[in-house]
Structures are given as structure tokens and as C-alpha cells.
Write a structure and sequence with these properties.
four-stranded antiparallel β-sheet, Haem_d1_sf, WD40/YVTN_repeat-like_dom_sf, globular, 12% helix, mainly beta, five-stranded antiparallel β-sheet, 8 helices, 504 residues
């Protein structure tokens, strides 16, 4: 079945070649006129990048039955979906029935290991969905990773609805989030001490210092917490005294999403969601990655504002989510993931199934003024030849807030990581070997969809809903993530894949 489907995909690719060439020529014409900035390259560059090679599944696999990343309707009908899908992975533990956008791992001063995860996707929608388990950020004792034990639930304002802002700073042992939702909420900033006892975080402050909330970023030294609202504001908050945070910089009129930083804290990698062009020329949305000098803000120079060093776009962009920095063999990169499909494009408005899927990419940022795309992280299910076809009717695939697309990625360490993990919504958790940044390849996956109607209290609870940035247990060769439809998972990497977590 797989080989027949692959053959069909290749046939569709050949049939679409003429259309893609025309699209490339059109994009090139725009670039030469200055209407479109396109910087890309590498083995998978160009306007129609290809999926990474499939994982070679070893012992114990329950492989996908269709193209890479797809869970077809026929698997729900036959009951195959109930067994789940796994390749070079094995579930170790599960907790709860819901999940959100982040999973974080921390070891405190006592040597205790904890997991933190937000339990909601969208407030107040999830008030009813989580009626049984409760709202808030869940704290798990993970010293016995086979038996996660919930020790606390954080329910201060920001923790009830952190949206995508929940982050921790390991250097100072601080956990923080701003009150947010899909558009924005008043950015109440909550800061907790987790260094002393991660199992029972202690609230330092809950203040309106974030102004507006949605996404966020921590400066590496832990002295500045940044908040971003997609309605158009960027705020730097001085948290040197976490009991009395105060805004030190407010910039209106920018549509930034995730905010990540160079190791020295001087450079910010800000994903830019752009502004929807309802006039039809959605290629000119200014969507992509902005690289900014924020050194003066971090140095508390009075009146300092971020300085844009460069802007990078890519032809297949959807909604840039975050860009995680890492180094590889002496070079600086960011691993960027676009969330969802491009619902703001002309195709997105008229035919969600054919909306472009941005997925992921590795970007070289050695020279912050001249970044360039090195390679892409895509699955077969993301490709334009099939994205709007039969698979658009699969459970969960037709929703613009779900679907076959990406959401968050992470790496297990900043220096020379060899593996990356990405939550790709209906396709579940996907693991990639990034040892060769120019030729990433999939090495493992885990996906546990739910049947439509299996959770009658939750409308549209069907398929997988993997949205979270994964966390890593390098010592045990495991990765933690959440699925909004089924909870927190501790997943063991098997068949030699765990070696990618070890130091060379």
C-alpha cells in the first residue's frame, strides 16, 4: 500500500512540475522587482522544497500505513488507528488527558527533576474541556519517569491561559508566562521560583507588566523577559528583581511571534507573522525571520530600541512560530518552524486543503545580516501535490487550527545537537537527525490519534493534536511532549536512535 501511494505521489509531482516552474518564475520576477525577498539554498532549497527521507523503522514498530505523516480515514474505519503509530519509539508513561504548547524540563537545587506543561490550547474554550482535570500549568515529579506524579497545578492568571508564552530560565531557576490567547489578552506576567523546589513552585509576582500576551522569550542571563503579542507589540520586562518586574522597552506595530536569543543575548531571532494581504498578493506579507540587535535594551540604555539587522523570507512560508538557536561544528543556526497552513493566503481563504504548509527549516545565522536557509524539515503529507487531495478529509485534517502541518520544534542541547523533535499536529511527534544540517532525515516518530466521538464532551476531538515544544531526558534517551487530545507522554527512543542524544 505504501509503495503504491508513493508512486502516486511521484506521479502527482511530475504532473505538477510545469505549474511549479511557472510559480518559481513568478516568484523570481517578484524578487527582481524588490517585491519579494527570497533567501534560500542548500540541497532542499527552491520554491518547492521536498520532504526529508523516511525513517527506517526497526524492531517493535507500528508504522504508518500511508505516505509519511498521514493517518488516513480508512485507518479510523478499520480500527487500525487505535493501536497508534510508532517508529523507533516506545511509550514509557502518559499523564492526563490534555495538553498545550510547551513541555519544559528542569532539575532543581535538591536534584529533583520536574516537568511543566500547559494544559490548554485556547481559553476560555478549554474551560469545559478540562472540567475534570482542571485548568492551569501542570507540575510533574519525574524522578521516576515511568510514573509521573502531579505535585502541583499553577492557577494564577497567566498560568490559567499562558497560550504560547510559558518558558523557564535554567540559569536563574525561574518559570514565567504571560496571560494570552490566540489574538491577545492583557499580559499579566507571572513569575515563579522553581530553583528551590521544582515540585512546588513559589510565586514571586503576578503583575500587568507584560502589557499584552501571546508568545515570549527569556534573555539567556535571566534578567529580561520579553513578551510579544501578534496584535502588534513587543515588550522587554526587567525581572532582575522577580518580585517587582517592570517594563523597560515597549515597541508597537510589530507582529512578532516566538523570541529566541544568541548565547550572549545580544541578538534576537524573532519570527514575524507579517500582516495578511487581503488584496491577493500574499507573497508580500513580510512573513519570516527578523534578526535584531537588542544589546542596548539588555544593557538598559535609556530609550534604546531593537535594531533590525536583517529580514529573511521563504517562498513556502505559512505562519512562522519560533526559531530555536543552536551551533553545529562551529557554525550558528536556528531551527525554525512555521505553524499551521497559510490560512491568510488566497488559497487558504478559498480552499483550506490547498493552503501552503511552511513546515520547518534550518537557517544559517553566522552573519546575522546575511542569514540563509540551509535545508527544510518537511513530511510527504505537507507537499502541495497531496495536501489538498483526499487527505484533506481525514479526521482533524480539515480544521485550520489543526491539520497536517507543524507547530513547535526543539533540540536537546544548544551545542552540537544531533537530533531535533517537532510536534506536527495530526502527524504527531517527529524526530529528525540533524547531524548533517544540509541533509536532515527523519529517524523516528510517535503518534496516538483519537477516534472521532471518543471524547463526546470535546467538540472536534479527533485525530492527534500534537502542538507542544518537546522536552528531553538525554540520560534516559527519552523525549516528552503533549497531545491536546490525549495528554502528556514520555517516549523512549529505540533501535539506536537514542545515541543521537549522547555527546560525541
Amino acid at each position: 500500500m505504501v509503495s503504491n501511494t508513493q508512486s502516486g505521489v511521484r506521479g502527482a509531482q511530475r504532473r505538477g512540475a510545469r505549474r511549479r516552474v511557472a510559480a518559481a518564475l513568478f516568484a523570481g520576477a517578484l524578487a527582481t522587482t524588490g517585491l519579494l525577498v527570497v533567501t534560500g539554498g542548500g540541497a532542499q532549497g527552491g520554491p518547492d522544497p521536498q520532504p526529508v527521507p523516511r525513517a527506517d523503522c526497526g524492531k517493535g514498530a507500528r508504522p504508518e500505513t500511508d505516505i509519511q505523516g498521514r493517518v488516513p480515514t480508512s485507518d479510523y474505519t478499520s480500527g487500525r488507528v487505535d493501536r497508534g503509530y510508532r517508529c523507533n519509539t516506545r511509550p514509557v508513561a502518559r499523564h492526563g488527558e490534555s495538553g498545550g504548547f510547551k513541555v519544559l524540563r528542569y532539575k532543581d537545587a535538591k536534584g529533583q527533576t520536574c516537568a511543566f506543561y500547559d494544559s490548554t490550547l485556547l481559553f476560555p474554550r478549554d474551560v469545559l474541556y478540562n472540567a475534570g482535570s482542571g485548568l492551569g500549568v501542570v507540575v510533574l515529579a519525574m524522578d521516576n519517569p515511568r510514573k509521573p506524579r502531579q505535585t502541583a497545578t499553577l492557577t494564577t492568571p497567566a498560568m490559567l491561559s499562558p497560550h504560547e508564552s510559558l518558558l523557564l530560565n535554567k540559569k536563574r531557576g525561574l518559570l514565567a508566562a504571560t496571560l494570552g490567547t490566540a489574538a491577545t489578552y492583557p499580559g499579566v506576567l507571572d513569575i515563579y521560583d522553581i530553583r528551590t523546589d521544582c515540585r512546588h513552585p513559589r510565586l514571586f509576582s503576578s503583575t500587568p507588566s507584560g502589557l499584552l500576551g501571546h508568545e515570549s522569550g527569556w534573555a539567556p542571563d535571566g534578567r529580561t523577559f520579553w513578551t510579544a503579542s501578534t496584535t502588534g507589540s513587543l515588550v522587554a520586562v526587567d525581572v532582575m528583581n522577580p518580585r517587582a518586574p517592570k517594563p523597560v522597552m515597549v515597541q508597537p506595530g510589530v507582529q512578532y511571534h516566538g523570541l529566541r536569543f544568541s548565547a550572549d543575548g545580544d541578538t534576537m531571532y524573532a519570527t514575524n507573522i507579517g500582516s495578511p494581504d487581503l488584496g491577493g498578493l500574499d507573497l508580500a506579507k513580510n512573513t519570516g525571520l527578523d534578526i535584531l540587535d537588542v544589546s542596548k535594551v539588555h544593557d538598559r540604555v535609556i530609550g534604546a530600541m531593537p535594531t533590525v539587522l536583517s529580514k529573511l523570507t521563504w517562498p513556502e512560508a505559512s505562519i512562522p512560530q519560533s526559531a530555536e538557536p543552536f551551533t553545529q561544528k562551529g557554525h550558528d543556526y536556528v531551527l525554525e518552524m512555521d505553524e499551521y497552513a497559510d490560512v491568510f493566503s488566497v488559497k487558504g481563504f478559498t480552499d483550506m486543503g490547498n493552503a501552503p504548509v511552511g513546515a520547518g527549516r534550518i537557517i544559517n545565522v553566522d552573519n546575522p545580516r546575511k542569514p540563509f536557509v540551509v535545508s527544510r524539515l518537511r513530511l510527504e503529507v505537507h507537499q502541495p501535490e497531496v495536501h489538498g487531495g483526499e487527505q484533506a478529509t481525514d479526521p482533524g485534517a480539515s480544521s485550520p487550527a489543526q491539520g497536517y502541518a507543524g507547530h513547535y520544534c526543539s533540540v536537546p542541547k544548544r551545542n552540537n545537537p544531533r537530533i531535533a523533535g517537532c510536534s506536527m499536529i495530526v502527524s504527531g511527534l517527529r524526530l529528525f537527525d540533524i547531524s548533517n544540517v544540509r541533509k536532515p532525515r527523519e529517524v523516528a516518530y510517535f503518534n496516538k490519534p483519537v477516534r472521532p466521538g471518543s471524547k463526546p464532551s470535546i467538540p472536534n476531538a479527533e485525530g492527534a493534536y500534537a502542538m507542544s515544544a518537546p522536552a528531553w531526558d538525554r540520560k534516559r534517551g527519552s523525549v516528552w511532549y503533549t497531545d491536546a487530545n490525549s495528554g502528556f507522554y514520555n517516549i523512549k527512543l529505540t533501535n539506536g536512535v537514542a545515541r543521537l542524544l549522547r555527546n560525541k
